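Handover notes (outgoing to incoming on-call)

Open items:
1. Transcriptional regulator: sequence verified, structure written out, both below. Nothing else pending on this one.
2. Nothing else urgent.
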Amino acid sequence: MTGDDLKVRLKIELPGAVRLGYGKVDLLRAVEEHRSISAAARSMGMSYRRAWLLIDELNKCFSEPVIETSIGGRAHGGATLTPTGIRIIEIYQTARDKVQDAIKDELDQLAASLAENPQAD
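Transcriptional regulator structure tokens:
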């Protein structure tokens, strides 16, 4: 195993005690893929209410919403990422990649110290 096999999970503290981390970013990606908050939540094993609350928190945190929703009708409703939502994903991924690169030596050291066949209890 090498440090490349280890993954950094970044959490960014935003004002108002809001955290932007891999979970919310994964939720944004799932909404982008499924074009639906409920389908995105299901794909992540999360309740619709939990997904909606996380998205609402992000929508209130940024100057522009990260997701826009439409209600029923011919298009059957749905949700789409806004340009801000797309940009938040890009910024987060770039930051995570930079951190991963910056601590490569330490990750290599950790990887070298790991047991060959770790067993969970």
